[in-house]
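#help-structures
NK: newbie question, is this the right format to request a structure? protein is Putative inorganic phosphate cotransporter
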Amino acid sequence: MHSMLACWVPPLERSKFAAVVYAGANFGTVISLPVSGWLCSLEFWGGWPLAFYLFGGLGIIWYAFWLIFVFDTPAQHTKIDPLERAYIEATVEKKDEENDTGVPWLSIFTSLPMWAIAITQCGQSWAFYTLLTELPTYMDKILHFDVQQDAFFSALPYLSSWLVGLGISSFADALLARQLLSPLTSFKLWNTVASLGPSLSFIGAIWAECDRMMVMMMLAGLGSLQGAVYAGNQMNHIALAPRFAGTLYGLTNAAANACGFLAPYVIGMIVQGHETLARWHTVFWLAAGINMATNCFYLIFASATEQPWSRGSS
């Protein structure tokens, strides 16, 4: 998707478009969690397998539409308005196909700004997967929600994050268009908001203890600021290397998604067999600490300058 955003979206509109594109994951979670909870309560076909059939089938349908309607570049689109194509091609970075020497892997892996993105994404993903994979368990074992309540309230942080992400990203683009913030300052500001908000929400949940409504207010309220990430590090790849934005995003996102199994594994070691409030507080402190520490690394080493290796020099 980053490769397509680099080809299709003018620089001053990328935060907004990225929020629309990538926040789809949050919106999908908002829909899928309560729907899955409802399906699991049914006796038809065993209940829970229905969730796999439904969302797997929707994925196949989506893929068919993707094949029909999506084009790599404006130049390849058969029905684009000529004025729109001219506007896009005049504003996005040009790719030099003739002098393309391939992906500069060594330069990428030794690029400190690239590692800054990867590391902060790992911290944010740790917090994200703590919510995604462990919040239902916490709500069941500690807050004592039933299955359908659990599914509904687990979706609230993603709903609020989706809405806030759309608003913040549009605001970030407006600030950039008026030159009130430099691109680097914008990346760092909104990335900090995206890390600080969820971290404070975990700390707030610790403070709220077993107050169910207060815990949900913290996670869905302050946690919603995670949506600012689309104006933060998520657009930084394109600034560093427009030609290799997709490659960079693939690398950093792969590193971040490693937290998809690391976070549940570590959390399991902390709480398994000891489902106590104190153990869950340790889980929340850990997520908040990792999130903020990795953001500090990003603040120190991030860059919004196109790297020499992106232009074909090392």
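mod (FA): yep, format's fine, and the tokens are attached above. The chain has a mean pLDDT of 84.
NK: thank you!
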